[in-house]
Here is the input.
Amino acid sequence: MNLFARLAAIVICLSALSPAFAEEAPLATKEGDFVVRDFKFRSGENLQQLRLHYTTLGEPKRDAQGHVTNAVLILHGTGGSGQQFIRPQFSGVLFVPGGLLDPARYFIILPDGIGHGKSSKPSDGLHARFPHYDYDDMVAAQHALLAQGLMVDHLRLIIGTSMGCMHAFVWGETYPNFADALMPLACLPVQIAGRNRTWRKMLMDAIRTDPAWKGGEYKEQPREGLRTAADLLLIAGSAPLLMQKAEATRDAADKYTVETIDKNLSTLDANDLLYQVDASRNYDPSPGLEKIQASLTWINSADDFINPPELGIAEREAGRLAHGRFVLIPIGENTHGHGSHTWAALWATYLRELLEESERHGGP
Here is the structure.
């Protein structure tokens, strides 16, 4: 689960856990690292060695020409990692025998984006001297991992959640023939502006203006800046209906807030978080949406603080997609705000339809 959702999940998951996913034995996963030599970033900076960590399930199947025909790429959100998709609300719906993404049928690739998980990141040692990556850099690195590291030159499907949702749009424009189908979950394909940009800038400013940050060369975490950041992330990932039920009194809400913030402060690194949020600064696929050729089903939830439906942006932009549609999931007892993207039971029916449709239009 990504950082926004993780900060709001402790009480919500306990109060709203759904029986919709299966209880299965631990998944047979494999982990690896691929190193890209002399990776050049759009900022002009470079790393002599960019480490890209990944998790896989299943095995690649190749046709007579050696091309992989069953690869699925699943992209995490800000602060997350590929491991978040092993959680039961995702894997227990999709990665089960006979499931839509059964590893017996598909080769599933779960990368850690630049700056996340076990991939190269500022906290490895470069701190604020780490290259200032953006979403285009992250997608270029994902492409290098597939094409050079895993020898995958085509994808059956890309699923992206939150930041990964935005990456899916970038993938569709940058590599229009690479994937048969795209499922972006919980984002908008426009420049980050308005309230979405405002809370992100507040978060970054809180870290940068904390005297303990010391330009990124801190010996101890800038705790006050991080506390403000954690507060903002909790609100951004909140699910109003579920939280009202789970924290039905003032004291319950106060207790939840204190426990959640304290727990997550123990895991946050200021430079890593600052870079993760700042990576969205150049994102804006809106000028090139017509370039996307893959079958696309784009899904948001109506209780998403980060992508509120009243903006009307999704309905406006969806009409520009050659083979795409937009679905808005209404608020309900099982929606999880922005984090609805990881609760696969909410949108599995649409994934089934997308796989069937893209297969009719030329998928393997």
Summary: Strands lie at 29-40, 46-57, 71-75, 107-111, 157-161, 181-185, 295-301, 324-329. The chain has one domain: 3-194+278-360. DSSP finds twelve helices and eight strands in the chain.
